[in-house]
Automatic annotation (TrEMBL):
Heterodimer of HisH and HisF. The keyword Transcription does not apply. GO terms for cellular component: cytoplasm. The keyword Cytoplasm applies. It comes from Winogradskyella ouciana. Its main location: cytoplasm. It comes from the Bacteria. It catalyses: 5-[(5-phospho-1-deoxy-D-ribulos-1-ylimino)methylamino]-1-(5-phospho-beta-D-ribosyl)imidazole-4-carboxamide + L-glutamine = D-erythro-1-(imidazol-4-yl)glycerol 3-phosphate + 5-amino-1-(5-phospho-beta-D-ribosyl)imidazole-4-carboxamide + L-glutamate + H(+). Transmembrane segments: none annotated. The gene is hisF. This is Imidazole glycerol phosphate synthase subunit HisF.
Length: 251
């Protein structure tokens, strides 16, 4: 059985790591390069960096950060934010990123997934999906969760797989930052629907929440931010408890 992955996420704004609740009320969480090295040393399996800045210098800032992170860590890391072309991905991979994450650009032009997968291989193309449950339906949102679309989470997930995505990063906007647990029902449905790995995001608050998303949600990886950034859940303790519960992890 494949080991389950623990993935700290660093949201980057103006070169700093930030964290909010339900995508708003951001607070500073530290230097992303320093945090990246700490997480690699402490047993994280992978890292995800999402540039949420809208500033014009975003791309240069991201390139500089990726280069610095690549020098410091020996685990795979994914970079997302503002990526909309083959050239963007080529640049980031050359800077040292292992994978890229696309979101709004994929919704606006789904062919981009095909182009990137054909050029670089599906193994390094992650499609991030931010969705909010409205009534009984999960609706895909864009631009950091600010713009609702006409897309249903499950229909879109199936399409991105068919277009060549190698992995899906699903963030429940309803759960983001609440520390009340992951959206396991939706994750379970996703895992039944697609045959590529699913990264669960949004809602981690306790060690048991991670166990639940692997067991009930059938997630392949679990991503979290504030519980790691602010020292609430040490990664090694998390993994040791998961192992006790029979969940395969790398220690």
């Amino acid at each position: 059985m494949l080991t389950k992955r623990i993935v700290p996420c660093l949201d980057i704004k103006n070169g700093r790591t930030v964290k909010g609740v339900n995508f708003v009320d951001l607070r500073d969480a530290g230097d992303p390069v320093v945090l990246a090295k700490q997480y690699a040393d402490l047993g994280a399996d992978e890292l995800v960096f999402l540039d949420i800045s809208a500033t014009q210098e975003k791309r240069k800032t991201m390139h500089d950060m990726v280069l610095k992170v690549a020098e410091q860590v020996n685990i795979p890391f994914t970079v997302g934010g503002g990526i909309s072309s083959v050239e963007d991905v080529d640049d980031l991979l050359h800077c040292g990123a292992d994978k890229v994450s696309i979101n709004s650009s994929a919704v606006k032009r789904p062919e981009l997934i095909n182009e990137l997968s054909d050029k670089f291989g599906s193994q390094c193309i992650v499609v991030a999906i931010d969705a909010k449950k409205i009534g009984e339906e999960w609706i895909v949102h864009l631009a950091g969760g600010t713009i609702p679309t006409d897309l249903n989470l499950f229909d879109w997930a199936k399409e991105v797989e068919e277009r060549g995505a190698g992995e899906i990063l699903f963030t429940s906007m309803n759960h983001d930052g609440t520390k009340a647990g992951f959206a396991n029902e939706a994750l379970d449905k996703l895992s039944e629907l697609v045959n590529i790995p699913i990264i669960a995001s949004g809602g981690a608050g306790t060690i048991q929440h991670f166990a639940d998303t692997f067991i009930e949600g059938k997630a392949d990886a679990a991503l979290a931010a504030s519980v790691f950034h602010f020292g609430e859940i040490p990664i090694i303790e998390l993994k040791e408890e998961l192992k006790k519960q029979g969940i395969p992890v790398r220690i």
